Amino acid sequence: MATKSTGGTEKTKSTEVKKKLNVLIVDDDPLNRRLHEMIIKTIGGISQTAKNGEEAVILHRGGASFDLILMDKEMPERDGVSTTKKLREMKVTSMIVGVTSLADQEEERKAFMEAGLNHCLEKPLTKAKILPLINHLVGA
Amino acid sequence: MQRQVALIKQSLFDQGYLDEQFMELEELQDDANPNFVEEVSALYFKDSARLINNIDQALERGSFDFNRLDSYMHQFKGSSTSIGASKVKAECTTFREYCRAGNAEGCLRTFQQLKKEHSMLRKKLEQYFQLARQAGPKETARRPK
Predict the structure, then answer these.
(1) ipTM for the assembly
(2) Model confidence, pTM
(3) Fewer CB in a 10 Å sphere around the end CB: N or C, chain A?
């Protein structure tokens, strides 16, 4: 079941996020969902979570929309590659950032990007990794 | 007591149990989520216990499905990376190498070591969090060099 959490606008060390970003976190690992949720909250965004790609697709079919989607690659039910392709077929225009492991091969990353990602980041996600993308998104 | 807490935490880094990712978690913790790091640690140990059980059962069956074992260990390594569990992560990497080589004995040996490191980390973090709760709002240790 998808869950929602709220954040607040906060000053960060390098920049202030002016607009409250709405983020979907898609990851089968509850630890990563909690971690990414906290990162988004810390930089002033609000987030919802989905346990796998299928939940993410169902959310969008129900009319949900997001500024940013953090998409894990390896998930049961529907993986990150399949989910990204499906969302793009559904005309979802959100920024989709793939989250990969260091162990992932170059070809796997390439296939993930070609599914329709805007960017790819390596785990573990940190504020420092994600802030430049988010600032680009909100035009800060 | 604050100093004792800081020393215990520093020793976890010095002995290689934790890496910089743990500091990232601490930096995310705030007044609204004062137990965030402990919460995330609890999630880690709950999920890793499940994975250890799955791998134990798979190894006990005797027939080594290296793809399945590698898949379990991929998840385990991912969680260990997210929490900064450095020694556990290293054993996960070694195990996956043995899976790729089809080396059953290597897998068994490495898994025993992994369980040992995991258990040790759990004990040390439990001790750390218990002391930290007693000490009250904690100072952040210096980022290890």
Answers:
(1) 0.85
(2) 0.85
(3) N
